[in-house]
Amino acid sequence: MVAPETAGNEPQALSNLLKENRRFAPPADLAAAANVTEAAYNEAAADRLAFWERAAERLTWAKRWDTTLEWKAPFAKWFVGGELNVAYNCVDRHVEEGRGDKVAYHWEGEPDGDTRTLTYSDLKREVSKAANALAELGVSKGDRVAIYMPMIPELPIAMLACARIGAIHSVVFGGFSASALKSRIDDADAKLVITADGGYRRGKPSALKPTVDEAVAECPQVEHVLVVRRTGEDVATNGKDVWWHDLVERQSDQHTAEPHGAEDPLYILYTSGTTGKPKGILHTTGGYLTQTAWTHHAVFDLKPETDIYWCTADIGWVTGHSYIVYGPLANGATSVIYEGTPDTPHRGRFWEIVQKYKITILYTAPTAIRTFMKWGDDIPAKYDMSSLRILGSVGEPINPEAYVWYREHIGGERCPVVDTWWQTETGAIMISPLPGVTAAKPGAAMRPLPGIVADVVDDQGNAVPNGGGGFLAVREPWPSMLRTIWGDDQRYIDTYWSRFEGMYFPGDGAKKDEDGDLWLLGRVDDVMLVSGHNISTTEVESALVSHPKVAEAAVVGATDPLTGQAIVSFVILRGTAEESPDIAAELRDHVAKTLGPIAKPRQILVVPELPKTRSGKIMRRLLRDVAENRSIGDVTTLADSTVMNLISEKLPSAKSED
Ligand code: 6R9
């Protein structure tokens, strides 16, 4: 057996197996007109706090801060003493500066032809009315408001109304169950829930209100439920319910946005991580808006006058909070919001939307990109997508092959792809290429953004040399960082600040290539230990996806008497590929050839679907249960709970070829 390549003679915390030589320089015209150039890295390196002060100056402050950063590790306060109103920054100032007629959101409902357009003036009126309505319901500064809604304009309006009055919103993704909603309402002690009768999904109305009723029946602290009528389906009503169209529509559209402290809470967003009770990640106003707005300006090179920007995430996730609502609106962008799924009424829906609105910047997730690969190249080829100029990816490591497919079939080989690494906890993008600066490598998040100090360290917390792998760590506080876990400072300390002295530990594995560029390698909980080598799931999955017959892959380590753990792979084939009897052998050899024999999977299972969270991340924990022939663990956070049955059915055909 050949040992994998390592940087030196020391064993590596994480092996570095994948070699990638392709790279794509920024288009010359884009680079020449880019919002941010190489100089930003030098400026931030010379004086990090001065760099973030300049970023904060892009916002409108009612009172300038006294202290840029107060750092009592691990508790940070940014722009201390400063006052601003987030909703004023996202809405009013654009109207006051003469941009009231500019479109803030083109909203596209799932049913064909169901559209709405909101200018910044429209948004100001709607947010003001909603803020007045919240006040009438007795909601005031510091109160918590749970929001459980479909992707309709009232969702950002409700969030901005909370921000305007200083109430703390807690958006709960509309696909969560009554018990998940209840536990989040309880944890934050919310007094108001904002919801809708339902939304449209896969061509049908999908009810939300019954779930809210079930949750709220056990939440006596909830005083009111404010309900938007979206589908018009019958809903049960009770004494707590208030219709949005009754209450909000009769409010005055005048509302004065009072300034709030830079460290006043803006929102709580629950993230479940891999195990245990969901964590209420707390974000505050000044630093959060500074970094979401600056990164949106820098990473997407947003030109608010001409760009039409579309982030396909659900607003229920952090990507939607930061890059559909706060960042784009703070920058005065024109965005598209789409309510439904990519295959309704047909598999070209996304590309039809790109063509219709002449989208210039598209931000989506690897899970979606791999699905489009699986559906076939001919679908996007039918649409005119020549308006696109920048493509983004977020949520999981993007396999080099998926990156190249995205660049070619969506971006027409002219658009830079920015692979953006960040988390609910980081609030905004941390590691990413800049589209006018970076010669990007497919699959690499490249460098920490200016003002961010991140590194790859070994298990002792020492920086690994170029070519080495280990743990991602952030060495210095950043403006949009989480401030704590709601109501649980100790868990905040234990989860993020105890693994390495003085450093933030995100829980992700990473490597530095020979040039010092960063590659994210998946959650450290998923790393496989094969014959004494720590092998990342990402590298083996990327090797599988680089085979022309494979669209998606997930790998896990299963206990093995010989090697400690052995690699078990689950693959989905591309639309055109046939499942042949020798496919497993073909794929195993392909991985061995690409990464070395150490990474050769013991088993390959061809499956129709993979288990994913509702935000599209692969749940390897459940696949480990299958691979080790255990009964399957908690499936409540799965997007589709029937998937595990489909996969288990495949198991008897699994053969070990060695
Ligand atoms: C924004 C978001 C965070 C976790 C993160 C990491 C994974 C996100 C990634 C990526 C590799 C990227 N992740 N972006 N991994 N490359 N570009 O997704 O937030 O839902 O909190 O998930 O997602 O594992 O730690 P969140």
Structural account:
β9 (198-201) and β10 form a beta hairpin. This protein is α/β, with parallel strands linked by helices and 658 residues long. The strands form 8 sheets. The chain has an 8-stranded mixed β-sheet, with helices on both faces. A 7-stranded mixed β-sheet has the order 5-4-17-16-18-19-20, with helices on both faces. A 4-stranded antiparallel β-sheet has the order 21-22-24-25. Helices cover 30% and strands 22% of the residues. The longest helix has 17 residues, at 120-136. The structure holds ligand 6R9. Residues 271, 317-319, 394-397, 419-424, 445, 506-508, 520, 523, 615 line the site of ligand 6R9. Ligand 6R9 binds at residues 271, 317-319, 394-397, 419-424, 445, 506-508, 520, 523, 615.
Give the helices and strands, then pairings.
Blueprint (H helix, E strand, L loop, with lengths): L27 H5 L6 H8 L1 H9 L10 E6 L2 E6 L2 E2 L1 H14 L3 E6 L6 E5 H17 L7 E5 L5 H12 L2 E4 L6 H11 L3 E5 L1 E4 L2 E4 L1 H8 L7 E5 L12 E3 H4 L12 E2 L3 E7 L7 E6 L1 H14 L8 E4 L6 H13 L3 E5 L10 H9 L3 E4 L1 H10 L2 H4 L8 E4 L6 H11 L6 E3 L34 E4 L11 E6 L9 E2 L3 H8 L11 E5 L5 E6 L4 E3 L2 E3 L1 H9 L4 E11 L3 E10 L9 H13 L7 E4 L13 H8 L15 H8 L8
Parallel strand pairs: 4-17, 6-7, 6-8, 7-14, 8-11, 11-12, 16-17, 16-18, 18-19, 19-20, 29-30
Antiparallel strand pairs: 1-2, 3-13, 4-5, 9-10, 14-15, 15-23, 21-22, 22-24, 24-25, 26-27, 28-29
Helix pairs in contact: 2-3, 4-5, 4-6, 4-11, 5-6, 7-8, 10-11, 13-15, 17-18
Ligand 6R9 binds next to helix 11 and strand 25.
